[in-house]
Amino acid sequence: MEIKRILWPTDLSGNAEKAISFVESLSKKYDAEIYILYVIEELAVHEPWYGEFDDTHVKKIHEWEEKKAGERIDQICEKALKGCPFYLKEIAVGDPAEEILKFVEERKIDVVVLTTRGRRSRFAFGSVTEKVLKNSRVPVMMVPVI
Question: What is the pTM of this model?
Answer without folding.
Answer: 0.83
